[in-house]
Write a structure and sequence with these properties.
Blueprint: H1 6-30, H2 60-64, H3 79-97, H4 100-103, H5 105-127, H6 132-149, H7 161-186, H8 201-214, H9 216-233, H10 241-254, H11 262-294, H12 299-302, H13 313-351, H14 360-386
Helix pairs in contact: 1-3, 1-5, 3-5, 5-6, 5-13, 5-14, 6-7, 6-13, 7-8, 7-11, 7-13, 8-9, 8-10, 8-11, 9-11, 11-13, 13-14
Amino acid sequence: MELLPLPFILFSALLFGLLVGSFTNVLIWRLPRGESISFPPSHCPHCDHALAPKDLVPVLSWLSLGGKCRYCRAPIKRRYPVVEVISGVAYALIAYFYPPAAYGLGTLGLMLFFTILLAGSAIDLDTYTIPDELTLPGVSLGLGFAALAGSGLANGGLPNFAEALAGALTGAGLLMTIDLIGSWVLRRFRERQYPDTPIGHQQIALALLVSAWAGPLWGLGAALLSAMVNAGARRVVRVPELLTLGGALLSLALGVNFGRDPLAMVSGALQGAGAAALIAGLYWWIQYGFVQKQAGATEAEEDAPFDPSAMGFGDVKLAGAIGAFLGVSGVLVSIGAAIFAGAILGVIQMAMKAENRLKFGPYLAIGAVVAMLWGDSVVEWYKGLLGM
């Protein structure tokens, strides 16, 4: 069968991206407000008038209306066409770097992955949160597409299921470990005043320690056992962080003296912590996203006091989704590029004496795009620096 010409594929991807970009605007507006993304149909946020199909043509409708609502003439944010254009261009780039004829469903998976990154970044810019409705299903989608379409990183393709799972756990575990240790330092090495129950940071720290010695499965098992003890006791049975975090750091420092491979210990610790973090995130999403809201949880319950945190839990789950789509090397490149982008912007803002109010999520998304499109080149460049 003759392959479709490249210009046709890129143009089709551009149009598809523009249409998905219109839906992305719906996600950006409705998810933070807890609204359904399917009902009611699209409407003006100012006058609530239902929008006709002619009002929903990506970019062109906004331009033809002069950036104002057809019915009440209220201004429509420029972000709507900007998001649509970004989505269309990105979809075309993905089709160019990952031709559908070669990658099949993997191309579609990366397009949906970009939509998660774009919507999550825009919401993070608005609300300083990244909805679980994007990140946790994103982890599942990444693993699902890897199982269906992964061709293996060793062949320069997309990750297979095992590589995607390792990427998800490593990504979540790395940012979770940064948060655990950073938060411990912020508390001046004091124990948490408001520990989670039945599962949370203490169980993740326990998984970090156990996984360094026994592997991710044993670490996750220890975390779940601790959570079961909390649930059975109906209170927090503390697991001291001096033991878990201090023990993990000491283990990684001294493990080589016991004949252990330090890289294997680090990898195991991160993946165990990542597994426990994603399980904890899923539990709290179900608990607060469904159960308590349906039961009419009060604002006081939702705004309960918490300990200082070095990093948002949403970033941890977003890193898990990035790893699920891009594998271990991809998520490491993503985090490295995110830190670099944050540092550059931070220097610029310091020079301009401007306040940096951006969360880490948008930087992570930028890093993920870099890893998705140019990750192999970055890895080869880095290996060249090390003389490998």
